[in-house]
Amino acid sequence: MQGLTPDQLSFFQDNGYLIIPDALSQDTVKELLAHTNQKLDDFSLEGHPMTKFSTGGDDGADHVGDAYFLESGDKIRYFFEEDAFDASGNLTKPKQRAINKIGHYLHELSPPFRDISLSEQNAAIAKSLGFEDPRVLQSMVICKQPEIGGAVGPHQDSTFLYTDPPSAVGWWFALEDTTQENGCLSFASGSHKRSPISRRFVRTGERGKEGTGFIENGGAKFPAELQGETATSGEDEEVYTMGEVKAGTLVLIHGNVLHKSEKNLSQKSRFIYTFHVIEGTQKYDERNWLQPPEKGFSRLYGSS
Ligand SMILES: O=C(O)CCC(=O)C(=O)O
């Protein structure tokens, strides 16, 4: 299997992201969308805690963190758009059009998503990126629904999936065309070299009263290959490059690069599938919101 070309690798190293068109065939995209829509039809509202996916605004104070969320690392669960409810808490959209994301174990429990996650192709890409023991975690379909699709503010993925030193890389597949109108990704190009992981998103509280919050990061702030880099700009000064892509495109996202997506107020959904990879040889923090399933995080080498 072919990994990244030298030009692709050098673009990723310089910019902190890489766009790879046609990584999935249009037939595969169709199958993944049909599978996702079936899941949205099938899940039940009965007994559902109606957990909304919230990033908690600018300071993250109200980031989602209930048991339904915290225990989703080895399950397939459904999180609602914040704007899918009226003032009395009733859904204003059919359930299929109200879900913000489905997560976080599709890469093991859903056969079509497993096929495009634990694949030889992805193992070859991980090898090009220098991973020794790449482990897959936190897979999700993000729906970004028409009219109410929530924004995702500027963030770095290693804040959420912290290893010491940081090692996360996101694999992000467009299942529909993404545009400025429906909330495509945008990137602060090169920010992985100037933006330290200064905060971490962790579990807080005791069992039964669990929550999540941000703490200061006392560990390494840049990955091994970028040790010695220092912060040279504030988050607020970054300029973002739009990443409009076609369905079937794979985008690789460095764990230190600042990226975001805006609200979707258009009439078109923006379904994507994403998972993350961390270096299994490095210490995965025991306070991270997502903890390993009993059998450990899924190996990419030797998995298929
Ligand atoms: O798809 C999006 O809008 C945001 C995804 C993202 O930022 C991530 O998975 O890290």
From TrEMBL:
The keyword Iron applies. The keyword Iron applies. Its cofactor is Fe cation. GO terms for molecular function: metal ion binding. Keywords: Iron, Metal-binding. InterPro entries: Phytyl_CoA_dOase-like. It comes from the Eukaryota. Pfam families: PhyH. Belongs to the PhyH family. This is Phytanoyl-CoA dioxygenase. It comes from Periconia digitata.
